[in-house]
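[Automated response] Your request has been received and processed.

Submitted sequence:
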Amino acid sequence: MAKNNLANPIFSDEAAARQWFEATRWPNGPICPKCKGEKHYATKKPGVYRCAAPACRKDFTVMTGTVMERSHAKLIQWAAAFHLAASSKKGFSAHQLHRELGCQYNTAWFLHHRVMEAMRRGGLDLPRLGGDGLVVEADETYHGPQENPQPSPQRDGRPYRSKKGKGPAGKRAIIALVERGGNVRSFHVAAADQVTVRKIIADNIARESRLHTDESRLYIGADVASHETVRHSAKEYARGDVNTNTVEGYFSIFKRGMKGVYQHCKEKHLHRYLAEFDFRYNSRKISDMERTVAAVRGGEGKRLTYHQPR
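Generated structure:
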């Protein structure tokens, strides 16, 4: 396989793109997405196969059962979208994709959001972060205004006082957990409070782990082996190996990408942008080609059914 650069035929030849997607998704030959049967027949139309199982007999392509299903975009456009999203360290916007491909913006937006969905990881099968003696850093940040801000319960009927630009009020809350030297998981939450944060920690961090945070009260009572903090308010940023530099570095990459590349993001889509940054961070030790392949394989079994930018 040639290197994953724009001179590769998969970005200009539809047949080459189809063969690459098939080899990526089915390294041992086509498998029916409906019944998982390996026996199939080739039809007269290139890239269309018919399942040989008597109880199935469905036609399928490499796009069936993935984020690409029922798309009218060409496979060379899909290949470019996956490659650019996987190789651009701080993201690649739909507007830039629209200019690069020469397609309509709606098509580029369609491709971009489905590639981000392919990069999303989740579910109960994910192993917990940390472990015996391992460090997991946790921190919260706020990015962009909430579209439907809710009054804080601490106001308790008191009159509203404008503090525009100050503090987290009215902003979108994000919690991130980073295993030092390992993976990150980030979450967009309706409100960053102790109940929410404790549940995220309990569901995602092994109890034997060491938890490192700043002095925020959100993490008090976390169910871990030890909880160590640094006092940023006293200009303490590290004490021995206790620090939150890794998670803050992740937030730096995320915010640079959101402000410098994407610029605008509706709150209902924020979780998908976080998934994209998580994916690239977690696959930082592999090549762009390997990351692109991982993203394509991650699109299997996922669907997004809306089509227009909203």
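Summary generated for your ticket: The longest helix spans residues 245-262. Residues 9-122+289-298 form one domain.
If you did not submit this request, please reply to this message.
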